[in-house]
Specification:
The chain is an alpha/beta fold. It has twelve helices and seven strands.
Length: 276
Amino acid sequence: MRLGKDISTLIIGDSHAETTFDDNIIPHSKNIAFHAEHYLFTYYKLKKILEGNPQLKIIILSYGAHNLSQGADVTIFSLGRNSRSFARYFMLLDKEGVTDTYSPSQNWRVNYLKWKLYIPFQLKLEAKLLYKTVLHKPIKLHDFPFIGKFYASSNHAFHDVREPINGHYFNKGKLLQKSNLAIKYLYKIIELCEANNIKLILINTPLHLEYRKRIPEYFTKLYTNTSIEITSKHPTIKIIDYSEEMLPDSAFGDYHHVNSIGAAKVSKKLIKEIGL
């Protein structure tokens, strides 16, 4: 799973990284972020990527209050047959990852068999890999179902701001709590980067004021305290907070994602800030 030899900066994370960091603007970078990606999945994806890419020097990871919420765990513990992202990553997991993703669902059982027996049950996700393996054709990075890319969004639509707020921080009107699983794997990502002498940059991407002011105080404090703890324990980790970046409404795709206009502004600012 190799990147180009000139790629020294890797961009990973969820839709906030996917829509914010333009790898056509940021030099020598590759954006493989994927929407709704939990830190558990990001960790295993990054671990695999690092095995074949010793040239990587910088990792940029999206990092916000919503990433630390139990709302992020939905993509792992969905009881439905087709969780949005769970099936994409199961091939990457080790025993610890399999245990940490356990759920009493058909989706988990099917993927456990896939992991245990190496049988591609979900051909929609694995057709390219199976086809190229059988025909001995070269497998490219984007043939893997867990590899994303920069999404140059042309959206500019503000609907009900309560929808993302409820999805991130509430369950049926009840305030969620911190995700111990997400925090565990955030630290595993940090430790993985340190072990490989890679500079890790955590970035809270721009959020519209109408979204920011509705984030529950519990989660704003959790984000602040977690950031303080990270920099205290791991002083080499750089945390950049662009969540209050003064962008016009036209630079937002929705209340918590920028569009291509916002991505260009933030990507150019990041280049100056970290000296890329």
